[in-house]
Amino acid sequence: MKKLSLLLLVVGFLSSGFAQDASVFEQYKIPTYEYKYLDVYGTDFLHYVSQAGNSRMYMNFGGNFSYVNQSPMMSWGIMDNLNYNSDSKGSPTGDATSTMTNTLQANARKYIMDDEPRGVFAYGTAGLAYSKTTDVDATKMLPLEVGAGYGRVTEERSVAQAIVVLKELGADASNENVLKLADIISKSNSGYYANMYKDDAAIMYYKDIASVTGKAEDAVKVQRILGGGIYQISTRWFGWAVMGGYRNPDMVADPSNSGGIRLGGQYAMPMDMDKQFFGWAWYSMDLNDNPVNNFNLGASFSIDHTYLWASMAKFEFTQYMPDIGDSKADWSLSARSDYFVLNQMSLYGQLEMANREATTGVKDTGTDFRIGGRYIIDLH
Asked: Quick check: pTM over 0.90?
């Protein structure tokens, strides 16, 4: 109970204070941009887990590559994760183990009928995963999903950056100026300045920014804010979408798996100039014999304290409903904070409480505490 009270106190601190008008996110047009970055991390400088009288120590490091492309009629992305970890008691006999995994995943959403800011769209996700534990290799497909939906959840990273630049420089942060500056940042992310001005791209970019901020002498600070790693992990989302489709966990390894139908929705709303709410709900109907249907819902709340410090709280709940047997549930509640000690390097702490009886068979609630670091390389 004390642990839960502590975690709820942390979550309450992160979510306190909704005051300023966030209507600027609704006013901003759907931006066209692309970005790519490499995130090199040492997740578990310290990862100590205690549950049901047992304890275990982990070490972990790896990297993430992300590419995202968004336009009014289509958005798509590619993500690759390479990870290595060691476990002090990973084997059934309690011996240490080590594991390397590589996961590649792609997703796309194509708008068939454009009714900006919403529309009818088709979507799909697919991927592959490779792992090696001790001397055992394994390769499998990630869940394949195809479907259709209506609505739009738009990423508005450039609006968040514009707000911070104007506030940090003490400039006029009216909605009009935020939208002007966000448009300049979005044009840069889409390659406009590089294509138009070639070698003078950076000069013209910061000149246009200064025309909005009125602070030409602060170009170095603007560069630090816009180039900071905080905006690779913290962004703004706006809108809603409902969708449904067919999902199969691995039709290659198990051709007999009939997969299932998944229906759900997403809702995203900036709660303030520097705060974000994101919620989702999914219902999955299993098409196999002896089906196990499930219902998943969750919500996250994030806040950018400064352009160097961001935090997030998250709750997730999944109810599993088998055709035969008792219904069981998994839940988790977590809080995390990242602080950039350098422009691209952050240290973070994460605390999670979870009960995953449905998927692990362990009835006790566990506590997971991590301290780690990451270095983000902007490849734009």
From this structure: no
Phi-psi region of 290 (alpha: psi -120 to 50; beta: other; left: phi over 0): left
Helix (H) or strand (E) holding 194: helix 192-197
- Distance (Å, rounded) from C-alpha 278 to C-alpha 288? 32
pLDDT band at 91 (very low <50, low <70, confident <90, very high): low
Cβ pair 195, 188 in contact under 8 A? no
In angstroms, the CA 87 to CA 30 distance is: 45
Radius of gyration over alpha carbons of the chain, in Å? 22
Q: Where are the beta strands (DSSP E) in the chain?
A: 33-51, 54-71, 74-87, 97-115, 118-133, 136-141, 144-155, 237-248, 260-272, 275-286, 292-306, 309-322, 328-340, 345-355, 366-378
pLDDT, tens digit, 9 for 90 and up, residues 184-216 = 988 887 778 888 988 888 899 999 999 999 988
* Architecture of the domain delimited by 2-156+235-378: Beta Barrel (2.40)
Q: Residues 6 or more apart from 357 whose CB is under 8 A from it?
A: 328, 329, 330, 363
Instruction: Report pLDDT digits (tens) over 217-245.
Output: 888 888 888 876 666 556 788 899 999 99
